[in-house]
Write a structure and sequence with these properties.
Layout lengths: L1 H18 L5 E4 H18 L3 H21 L14 H27 L10 H7 L10 H32 L1 H15 L6 H5 L2 H13 L6 E4 L4 E3 L2 E3 L4 E4 L1 H5 L2 H4 L38 H18 E5 L7 E4 L1 E4 L4 E6 L3
Antiparallel strand pairs: 1-9, 2-5, 3-4, 6-9, 7-8
Helix pairs in contact: 1-12, 2-3, 2-6, 3-4, 6-9, 6-12, 7-9
Length: 344
């Protein structure tokens, strides 16, 4: 995480030195964060197979956006099998992604002299389960887990970083509070897990960003049996949509300042921040919550700490506020910010 982030920040410094004589520079960070989180998740998932892993994940990202773009079309049963232009592109990307993942897995299988250990990255850990009795995963299951982890740790974290930087560009007093906390606990060192666990205000701001600009604005659950919900009878097989974004801004749960940026509401933790302990749902809850939750928060803390050590920033006058839901909640016109180096 730190190595990928520092590489991005070094490039910012290089651009500052060349284009702005080390004074200030406007950077559109939504694409920067998308590329960064893609690099981090590919390294974490595939280690030395990073390049091939990123190729597979790039195909998956294109595929996801293509499916979302076509999801608003009226569905006619059977049309998913007709070779339309969209379907052909979907089939092509899906085939490319599966082929890349399969090649990586087969290469790992063939290269290991000790079949009981396949590496300490995500892929290696999953492949080790092949000897774990009833818990073992087959090829297709491993590929599906890789795809799920990529989406959980890439799209959501990228969105979280964008909106956190946006909020801190508006509330520069909080930006400075976080910088002081980072410098007090980490100095200019690369933050380790122990340091990250002590960044209480950074965590509070991240939680508030997740509340106000939740990456997943809604989630769905299907009933496994007939059930009663309040006065309603819900038949088995009914899909219930949970409006996360509406819950996160509900005055009933969060008070009169529900639409305002106030990280202090999380001073005693997420469960005590609202009038209901489960009012914060950025990663859902229960056994089917987001598998990348801890990874995403660890990644976001690491990236924010490293940025705060090296740069201050403000919102560019070119910014247009237009949040749009496209898989995750994104800044439709990007997020241009003006960065200034703190240490020359």
């Amino acid at each position: 995480m730190a190595a990928c982030t520092i590489s991005m920040l070094d490039e910012w410094k290089r651009q500052l030195a060349i284009e702005a004589k080390n004074k200030s520079l406007t950077i559109e960070v939504s694409e920067e964060f998308r590329e960064l989180t893609s690099d981090i998740i590919a390294h974490t998932s595939f280690g030395t197979s990073f390049a091939h892993g990123k190729e597979a994940f790039n195909a998956q990202t294109k595929l996801q956006h293509l499916i979302v773009a076509s999801s608003s079309d009226v569905f006619i049963p059977g049309t998913q099998y007709i070779p339309t232009r969209t379907n052909l592109e979907i089939w092509k990307l899906d085939g490319k992604m599966k082929k890349s993942l399969k090649c990586i897995i087969e290469s790992r299988l063939n290269s290991q002299s000790d079949s009981s250990f396949y590496g300490d990255d995500l892929l290696g850990i999953m492949m080790d389960t092949k000897n774990d009795g009833s818990n073992k995963l087959n090829m297709n299951e491993i590929m599906e887990e890789c795809k799920t982890f990529f989406f959980s740790g890439h799209e959501t974290t990228s969105s979280l970083l964008v909106w956190t930087v946006f909020l801190l560009s508006l509330h520069t007093d909080w930006q400075e509070k976080l910088r002081q906390e980072v410098m007090q606990i980490c100095g200019m060192e690369i933050p380790d897990p122990d340091m990250l666990s002590k960044l209480k205000m950074v965590n509070m701001v991240l939680l508030e960003a997740l509340r106000l600009y939740c990456p997943a604005i809604e989630t769905g659950r299907m009933t496994s049996k007939d059930m009663k919900l309040g006065d309603l009878m819900i038949p088995r097989g009914t899909v219930l949509m949970i409006p996360i974004a509406m819950i996160h801004r509900s005055k009933e749960y969060w008070g009169e300042d529900s639409n305002e940026f106030n990280p202090m509401r999380f001073i005693n933790g997420a469960y005590k921040a609202a009038k209901h302990p489960n009012a914060l749902l950025p990663f859902s809850l229960g056994p089917r919550n987001c598998i990348g939750q801890n990874f995403a928060m660890l990644e976001a803390k690491t990236v924010m700490a490293l940025i705060l050590q090296r740069f201050s920033w403000s919102l560019s006058p070119d910014y247009q506020h237009a949040p749009v839901h496209n898989l995750t909640l994104q800044a439709q016109h990007g997020l241009p910010i003006i960065i200034k180096p703190l240490h020359l």
